[in-house]
């Protein structure tokens, strides 16, 4: 185990804990940059999906993992971003304009959902966001003049400053750049007063408020930022698939987005990436699994939801801290070897804390 | 014109009763354990499938298969509580929401994998199928009438249970304060399991009642998503509230399906929900959620 | 002029008068203690001053501001901070992060500056950390700086809550039963800290307290309440000798007989 001696305040504030950590992340960055040289078309395309899901994961993590607000309708923000991008780019709006517009429209939707969120708590908020998700889905189906109804919309590849990114690697670098930018902005927010206000609201609304944090302002802000980030991912998603239709943004997609952060690990930015990787790879694994199952079972459409559900249950039961939590445990095991004991990370179990006024 | 309107109201009430029964299942569990069971609709779906499978056995009379299906679901409900819910009690609300959502996914997928259930739509044969009852000019199918009658009877039974039995009073105590109930010698864990049994049984009844109207299929549990607005409108902690909420949703849906443009019917429940939440953030009958400091 | 003035404050919960026509004034630099039996309405008074409850009637003035027109989150900006009877910390975060939240009312940077982490944001962050380190030094919390709050002992958590309120650099500090759950030694330390807070930092302290030894050690004036009403006000000694107060705590002779 390495001990860190802090000699200046800057050390607490900076992005990387120390030079060694920075080295690891630089190495990871280099690998991500040369990835198109290492992977074939198909896997590079999957890598782009991982990045898109990671952006959504980051947005959702900010809202649920750091601010403690549950959203069961996040696919709706993804949809708003995707459809805004599709509609604008079909009318010839350049990407550098349409992308911020997609984010802005999505942010506006986030603002609208955030408004009732001020008055709603826990489960009431979850169900209100669920309702929002349904309403957006049905709107997309019915508003045929703009959204094409259930026929969906077609998109062209991204044209960025006159260059058409129609190759897999071109899109990959675009997604990578935007992911990096999103990550940096979130990281900055989290080491500033705004990020601390979010976390304070998550842990205790009452004392956050008594410390001068306006719940209305910061909860709405969390919704707006989260929706904008998700809208960004939506715009990328639309260009990646080059076809969007309402069923890609249904309630079950919202749940899959939540699975990203639960499986990745709540309350950690790493978790968003690990979760995105896991959720992209899971269908691949299921495809491999199919070959080993009896054919009566293998091609049932119910197989995937069954496995998704089982994995979700197992993660919450056995590893509530998600993949990132598991990684931290493994790392600690090696650092402390041979002193690690089983209960080290165990949290004391608490009673059901009721918010009900008794 | 008026007749058509009344007819719509009646069928809305019937469907509303089913929403209400599923919502009742949510409320029972939520009141006792503060767990919101997102898999309530799937419990209902399982109940209907079990009744279907048992009814498929030649020697079994319909009523017996219903009773057995309800009992089987009670057992399944209790088993789910023991296996999955009890270990996560006390964890943040988010974990609990996710685990019941996972349960819902799992149950829905599993139902479509079970041979004989699958992804097809099945018809549950009932002795009262295709019969109608006329009240003057209004005609009500026996299926709808059955829903309304059973809901009334079930509500009376539940009311009596909570009011007059030891176990019912213990459940009320737990819903007020788990720790205090524990200190008073109430076996909290066992009562929680029992509440899941009751809730799953109610869900099974709702499933069997709904089966003649929507048929039995793996996705019929999605009706649970309509029961949410019902439970929330009713305040999520109130048993009569759940039924009233269900009736409101049922009637609004029936009317909006007839008088409003396409597609509005599907979201009308959620529009009503959002409207109620904006006006009354804790539902129509809800208790205030405030932490004491 | 008084820093905090409470005028004819009343609070009703569904027909029950939890607080009934309570008035008092706290001068700048005073240590003012509210005592009373359980259920006397002490915490309710605090909750009304910190605007968690809206009073049914009465006025609260702080430094010339009528608090009834304010929101709870404005209070630290005005210079009023509080602690809670049962600890309300951000328990998944480190001590340092908890204390930094106390600095929230002093953050001046804009959202975009924080997103880009501009030099101005960096400077502000360093200033916040300097302020927090002073509080850490004052309360001897160096040892726990990077520990997650939820795992620390109760006594330390109480201290962190006090520290978080201090980080806001308030002009007045409301402490709700600061010694509850502390052992004798910790309570002794607390009495020194409370005096330091007033003498060194010049912060006015209003506290609710049961431990009469602590009360008589530090308080300039004491207010005794019972059943939501004011019984008496005076020095700790006067209050202890007041027959009405003794009666509220111990019951009358007739009750005993």
Automatic annotation (TrEMBL), chain A:
Record-linked Pfam families: BPD_transp_2 (PF02653)
Topology class, membrane: Multi-pass membrane protein
InterPro entries (alphabetical): ABC_transp_permease, LivM-like
Localisation: Cell inner membrane
Keywords assigned by UniProt, alphabetized: Cell membrane, Membrane, Transmembrane, Transmembrane helix
Claim: Protease is one of the keywords in the record: no
Transmembrane segments: 21-39, 45-63, 95-115, 122-143, 170-190, 218-237, 249-266, 273-293, 305-325
Superkingdom assignment: Bacteria
Identification of the protein by name: Amino acid/amide ABC transporter membrane protein 2, HAAT family
Organism (species): Marinobacter segnicrescens
Lineage start: Bacteria, Pseudomonadati, Pseudomonadota, Gammaproteobacteria, Pseudomonadales
TrEMBL record, chain B:
UniProt topology in membrane: Multi-pass membrane protein
Native source species: Marinobacter segnicrescens
Origin superkingdom: Bacteria
Protein family according to the UniProt entry: Belongs to the binding-protein-dependent transport system permease family. LivHM subfamily.
One of the GO BP terms on file: amino acid transport
Protein's name according to its UniProt entry: Branched-chain amino acid transport system permease protein
GO molecular function annotations of the record: transmembrane transporter activity
Compartment(s) of residence: Cell inner membrane
TM spans (from-to): 6-28, 35-54, 60-80, 92-118, 138-162, 194-215, 227-255
GO (cellular component) term, any one: plasma membrane
Keywords: Amino-acid transport, Cell membrane, Membrane, Transmembrane, Transmembrane helix, Transport
UniProtKB/TrEMBL annotation, chain C:
Residues of the ABC transporter domain: 4-252
Annotated SMART domains: AAA
Domain of life: Bacteria
UniProt xrefs under PANTHER family: ABC TRANSPORTER ATP-BINDING PROTEIN, CONSERVED COMPONENT OF ABC TRANSPORTER FOR NATURAL AMINO ACIDS-RELATED
Taxonomic path: Bacteria, Pseudomonadati, Pseudomonadota, Gammaproteobacteria, Pseudomonadales
One function term, GO molecular function aspect: ATP hydrolysis activity
Protein name from the UniProt record: Branched-chain amino acid transport system ATP-binding protein
This protein's UniProt keywords: ATP-binding, Nucleotide-binding, Transport
